[in-house]
Amino acid sequence: MAGKPQKRASDLQFKRGGRQERRALRVVAPGERRQAAPRVPKDLGELGRAVWRAYWHTDASLAVTAADMYDLHRYCRLIERREAIERDIYEPLDEETHAGLLVTGSMGQAAVNPKLAIVKELSREIERTREQLGILPLASMRLGVTKVTQDNGLADLHRKLRGLPADEDDEPAGVIDLDELE
User: Which secondary structure element, helix H or strand E, spans residue 112, and what is its range?
Assistant: First the structure.
């Protein structure tokens, strides 16, 4: 507003130096893994079991707590459900008649298969769950988990973040406070 003094940067919410708590970047060294993956739930089918096992080989699994297990189990079941419905839609698919995508409506007209709406809703829920569990790369960055893939990548990342030359040895720490790097 005109004539009104601006707030100081430290008084702004969600700005560096403001009220937001400080964030730290969790760097995952190559080969760092959780000790043992939890058992696969018995009610999951073959696809759900494969998704469960694959998740425990991701870096996002390092951030999972006991409270997240329900969401992970639900995520696996949602993928199984979506796959089963898609199979019902697309396996009988005929390119000429579009059977599977189109069904006969109540008045004998062609109508879009209502199962497509269910697939769309399941896909939306799967994407939300992927964000929460950090399965997608951007989601894992938001969780603060990133992976270093080169042999000496962890030390190089620490040097770059601290602004040191590449040849200078610097003992890396487990967590980097990004706010202290300014």
Answer: strand 110-112
Residue 167 belongs to a domain: no
| Cβ-contact 24, 177 below 8 angstroms | yes
pTM score above 0.90: no
In a domain, 100, yes or no: yes
Asked whether residue 136 is domain-assigned, the answer is yes
Calculate the alpha carbon distances from 119 to 81, 93, 123 in Å: 9, 16, 6
- 121-176 pLDDT, tens digit per residue, is 999 999 999 988 888 877 777 776 665 554 455 666 666 667 666 554 445 445 55
Give the total number of structural domains in the chain. 1
State the residue range of the domain holding 25: 21-147
Q: Is residue 93 part of a domain?
A: yes
